[in-house]
Amino acid sequence: MRQFLQNLLYKPISRLADRYSSQPDKRRVNRALSALYKSITTKPGKKGLVIPFNIYSDKFIILSDQHKGARDGSDIFAKAAKNYLSALDYYNNEEFIYINLGDSEELWENLFVTIKRHNKATFEKEKLFIKRDRFIKIFGNHDLYWDNDPLAAVGLLQIYGKAIKVYEGVILQTTVNDKPLEIFMTHGHQGDLQSDGNWFSKWFVSNVWGPLQGYLHINPNTPAYNNQLKTDHNRIMYEWSSERKNTLLITGHTHQPVFKSMTQLEILYSDLDQAKKNNETIKAAELEKKITKLHMRENNQPDFNGYLDTYFNSGCCCFNDGDITGIEIADGCIRLIKWSYQSKVSERQVLEESRLEDLKL
Questions:
Q1: Does residue 7 sit within a domain?
Q2: 84-105 residue pLDDT tens
């Protein structure tokens, strides 16, 4: 019966959930991002931190959208938990600063006490960064609890042994090519109706989508789903970032990895175009095979002329195959990385990399 209902309901329920959970409005997004950026730069420490850094000696890992749950059928983090723990071990040992970019806890579908009980191991790993004063926690729309619940400080004390402050954003500041560079980070839900006054979407997720997702084992956040052209929300985020001088924007929220303003599929198309221009027949054929495997719905190659390298998205830590993605800033570079299971062992892979000094801004 469950399999029958999965086949019957997967597409309509996924479309309905997407419709009511993500309705970005460009004017609303622009207004919200600009207001947050201004607040952080004029009053650091209230809504976010301003952190000067050295591009060659300081190291950051940005991970988002774990959606830690109750280890039941609706817990989309369960399969990725071991990859997440391995990644935190690696980054703690390498002395990275960990920026948790929001939606770390799935508090739309679960009570805090449930999250606390089933995620002790992940909280213990995160505590290692807190002990080194190298942990920055940002709230997202699914864990707004950390920002607006009067008991949030008590909850943070219970899981971390310290009532840390949770912010809406953070700005890293440095100098590249003798020019100032700011890296603005926030979860990315700003301007999205699911977290901007849409009561129906919250009710739908808590009372309909969550329980139904758990029973049917439905998870729309598959790699194939997220390898398409940019979502409207990511596109709007890119447009905002492209209008700012010497500024990068890094968000999460959409579960769709973006590097230098392009998704994996868009990068493949760009590489294919270059291979054809260089008459690299073998490379072009290999790229076309990779594009075909991503099940692109349309065969029209997108036009990327004029794109700036101003927007990045960390993806998520809850892909249904257990993979997690994130953004590293280290050694003068910015990287899109993936942790995946190879023969049941978690391994780190660099998907894309660029030197900060080579970015088109």
A1: no
A2: 999 999 999 999 999 999 999 9
In the chain, the amino acid numbered 6 is Q
Tokens, residue 160: 């971390």
Q: Which residue has the tokens 């959208």?
A: 65
Inform me whether the pLDDT recorded for 223 exceeds 60. Answer: no
Indicate whether 320 belongs to any domain.
yes
Q: Which residues, 6 or more positions from 193, have their beta carbon under 8 angstroms from its beta carbon?
A: 20, 22, 23, 24, 25, 201
120 with 63, same domain: the answer is yes
Closest CA to 316 of 15, 138, 169, 102: 102
pTM exceeds 0.90 for this model: no
The pLDDT score that the predictor gives to residue 289 is 85
- How many domains does one find in the chain? 2
Query: 331 is in which domain, residue-wise?
Result: 22-200+227-262+309-358
159 plus 241 within the same structural domain: yes
pLDDT at 37: 97
Whether the Cβ atoms of residue 138 and residue 167 lie closer than 8 Å to each other: yes
189 and 273 assigned to the same domain? no
Q: Is the same domain home to 282 and 345?
A: no
pLDDT at 231 over 90: no
**Same structural domain for residues 117 and 245?**
yes
Amino acid identity of residue 215, one-letter, is Y
Q: How many CB atoms lie within 10 A of CB 201?
A: 23
